[in-house]
Amino acid sequence: MQHVEHIGIAVKSLTESNSLFSKLLGVQPYKQEGVESEGVLTSFFQTGQTKIELLEATNPDSPIAKFIEKKGEGIHHIAFEVEDIESEMTRLKSEGFILLNEVPKKGADNKLVCFLHPKSTNSVLVELCQTIK
Ligand SMILES: CC[C@@H](C(=O)O)C(=O)SCCNC(=O)CCNC(=O)[C@H](O)C(C)(C)COP(=O)(O)OP(=O)(O)OC[C@H]1O[C@@H](n2cnc3c(N)ncnc32)[C@H](O)[C@@H]1OP(=O)(O)O
Ligand SMILES: [Co+2]
C-alpha cells in the first residue's frame, strides 16, 4: 500500500458541504463526478498528497444513504493508493481480510477500486484504489 489517497466523507448536501469545505480548506473542489453504480455524487478537494472526497447519496439504497441514516454525516472510508490492485487484493484476502468486491470496479477520479468489509478492519471501511493509466 502507498499513501492515503483520499478520505471519504458522507454528507447530506453536496452543495452545503462544498461551501463548508471550501471555507475550511481554503480551496475550491477541483471536480464533481457522479458514480451511478455506487449511487453517489462526489466532489474532490486536493489537500497535499491526499484528497477529501465528499459523497452525497443519489438514491435511498446507496451505501451513503444507509450510513447517514445509521450514523449521521461524517468520515465514511479511508482510501489507500496501490500500485497493483489485483495483487494487493490477493495478498489481503490471503491475510484474512474480507473483500466486498472480488473484481476491481470503476470508481471516481480515474480509479479502479476495491472495498474491504469494516468487520475485518476494526470497523473502518477501507478502499483500495489504483490509478487507471
Ligand atoms: C465514488 C466511488 C468510490 C470512490 O471512487 O472513491 C467510493 O468511495 S464509493 C463509496 C460508497 N460505496 C461503498 O461504500 C461500497 C462499499 N460499502 C458496502 O459495500 C456497504 O456499505 C457495507 C460496508 C458492506 C455495509 O453495507 P450493509 O451491510 O448493507 O449496511 P449496514 O448498514 O447493514 O451495515 C452493516 C454493518 O457495517 C457497518 N458499516 C456500514 N458502513 C460502514 C462504514 N462506512 N464504516 C464503518 N462501518 C460501517 C454498519 O454500522 C453495520 O455494523 P453493525 O451495526 O455493527 O452490524
Ligand atoms: Co472513495
Question: What do you see in this structure?
Answer:
With 133 residues, this protein is an alpha+beta fold. It has three helices and eight strands, in the order βαβββαβαβββ. Strands 2-3-4-1-5-8-7-6 form an eight-stranded mixed beta sheet. Strand 6 and strand 7 (111-116) form a beta hairpin. It is globular and about 40 Å long. The model has no long low-confidence stretch (mean pLDDT 97). The structure holds ligand LP2KCY5N and cobalt (II) ion. Cobalt (II) ion binds at residues 6, 8, 53, 77, 79, 127. One of its GO terms (molecular function) is methylmalonyl-CoA epimerase activity. Pfam families: Glyoxalase_4. Its EC number is 5.1.99.1.
What is the element layout, followed by pairings?
Layout: E1 4-11, H1 14-25, E2 31-35, E3 40-47, E4 50-57, H2 63-71, E5 74-81, H3 85-94, E6 105-106, E7 111-116, E8 126-131
Parallel strand pairs: 1-4, 5-8
Antiparallel strand pairs: 1-5, 2-3, 3-4, 6-7, 7-8
Bound molecules: ligand LP2KCY5N and cobalt (II) ion.
Provide keyphrases for this structure.
133 residues; alpha+beta; 3 helices; binds ligand LP2KCY5N; binds cobalt (II) ion
Uncertain spans: none
Distance between the termini: 18 Å
Overall average residue pLDDT: 97
Largest sheet: 8 strands, mixed
> What global shape is seen?
globular
Task: Give a count of the beta strands, DSSP E runs of length 2 or more.
Answer: 8
The largest beta-sheet arranges its strands as 2-3-4-1-5-8-7-6
Q: What is the strand content? A: 35-45%
Helical segment tally?
Answer: 3
Identify every distinct bound molecule in the structure, by name, code or SMILES.
ligand LP2KCY5N, cobalt (II) ion
Overall SS class:
alpha+beta
Family: Belongs to the methylmalonyl-CoA epimerase family.
Enzyme class: isomerase
Pfam family, one: Glyoxalase_4
Protein name: Methylmalonyl-CoA epimerase
